[in-house]
Design a protein that fits this description.
This is Lipase. The chain has about 350 residues and is an alpha+beta fold. About 25% of the residues lie in helices and about 40% in strands. A six-stranded mixed sheet has the order 7-8-9-3-10-11, sandwiched between helices. Helix 2 packs across helix 3, helix 2 packs parallel to helix 4 and helix 3 packs across helix 4. The two termini are about 40 Å apart. Bound molecules: adenosine-5'-triphosphate (ATP).
Length: about 350
């Protein structure tokens, strides 16, 4: 049984229908990222889970208990939900030490002092804050402050942890390290967690599964690899990564493969959504899945116009008929006409 179960959840704010009939199940110990364009409803969903916002209909069940259920009128207040919160802004008390900050939630729960001290110490060690317990937040780096806010949420042993853009205040380099320790810390504690992020790479690095929201609806929920390799719509294919999207005409459809006229070429591509013979379609080609060289059975003819050196790879811009196409290669490439090759498996076709 799922630890967290969100069923048919809907929420209106003002005249706007923000969440539309959302259904998400989260297993014990699972880390879910809520990802989606700005305004897609990620924060509103997190607020509904924490109890800061009350949905209009549907239900939220945590560890077998209703937190919200419009059918029987249940609304459990935030402080009774046994949910830990981690905010983007850390929200630490500046005049309290690290130890006092972390102990605060236990004091509220009237945990006996000895027990609280042991729990705080264990949690600080677990989160890599040993030796810093007497410091004030102002004497810590941004990364350390975020660890304190995580320790404060961990110490009360919540059934569910909610994190709102937890790493967005850290600089780029620190964020890369923070992704690793955050995932390690959550996994070591077998914590069930839902976090909001804008950052697709961060969602892929930390989450077991990513729920992509689009206009308040669940567009797809899947593992990072499944989302990238098997997007169920053009929206997801485009949202995950930065692919080329070309317009073509479907000539033929056979099993899971379509034959497509793309400019002057005829190519094959994998179908992840049904397309019909004769219809206009979109073909998704990831720059890193294209290769250059001799013409193969599945290729486009392109003329190279620009190359950018991006450190880890080169990005080449080709003119292919009326469209432009990006190709990534590890080595430089000369100017002129060339074949851009790909396997039918690596190209995805969707209805336009
Ligand atoms: N009080 C309100 N009244 C009306 N609309 C609101 C209110 N609060 C938020 N909204 C709208 O709800 C939509 C969803 O907002 P939400 O913050 O949940 O999105 P989000 O996916 O978290 O976006 P972001 O990534 O920009 O933080 C937005 O279009 C926002 O303008």
């Amino acid at each position: 049984m799922a630890t967290l179960s969100i069923k048919n959840l809907s929420k209106k704010l003002g005249q706007n229908q923000i969440l539309k009939d959302l259904n998400i199940d989260v297993q014990e110990g699972e880390i879910i990222a809520l990802l989606g364009p700005s305004g897609s409803g990620k924060t509103t969903l997190l607020r509904c889970l924490s109890g800061l916002e009350t949905p209009d209909s549907g239900s939220i069940t945590l560890a077998g208990k209703d937190l919200f259920n419009s059918a029987n009128g249940t609304i459990v207040p935030p402080e009774k939900r046994n949910i830990g919160l981690v905010f983007q802004s850390y929200a630490l008390w500046p005049h309290k030490t690290v130890e006092q900050n972390v102990a605060f939630g236990l004091e509220l729960r009237k945990t006996p002092r000895d027990q609280a001290r042991t729990r705080v110490e264990t949690t600080l060690n677990r989160i890599g804050l040993q030796g810093l317990s007497d410091r004030f937040p102002g004497q810590l780096s941004g990364g350390q402050q975020q660890r304190v806010s995580l320790a404060r949420a961990f110490v009360t042993d919540p059934v569910l942890l909610l994190l709102d853009e937890p790493l967005s205040n850290l600089d780029a380099k620190l964020r890369e390290y923070a992704r690793v320790w955050l995932r390690e810390a959550l996994k070591a504690a077998n914590m069930t967690a839902v976090f909001v992020t804008h950052d697709q790479a961060e969602a892929m690095a930390i989450a077991d599964r990513i729920a992509v929201l689009h206009n308040g609806q669940l567009a797809q929920i899947a593992t990072p690899q499944e989302l990238y390799e098997n997007p169920n719509s053009l929206f997801i294919a485009d949202f995950m990564g930065s692919p080329n999207i070309l317009t073509g005409q479907v000539l033929q459809v056979e099993h899971q493969e379509a034959t497509i006229k793309l400019g002057d070429s005829v190519v094959k591509a994998r179908m992840n959504a049904p397309v019909q013979k004769g219809e206009t379609c979109k073909v998704v080609l990831r720059p890193e899945r294209l290769s250059l060289g001799e013409k193969t059975g599945n290729s486009l003819q392109g003329n190279k116009e620009h190359s950018l050196y991006l450190g880890a790879y080169y990005e080449h811009w080709f003119q292919v008929g009326d469209e432009r196409l990006r190709v990534h290669t590890p080595t430089p490439v000369g100017f002129g006409q060339v074949s851009i090759n790909f396997t039918p498996q690596s190209a995805l076709v969707f209805p336009a």
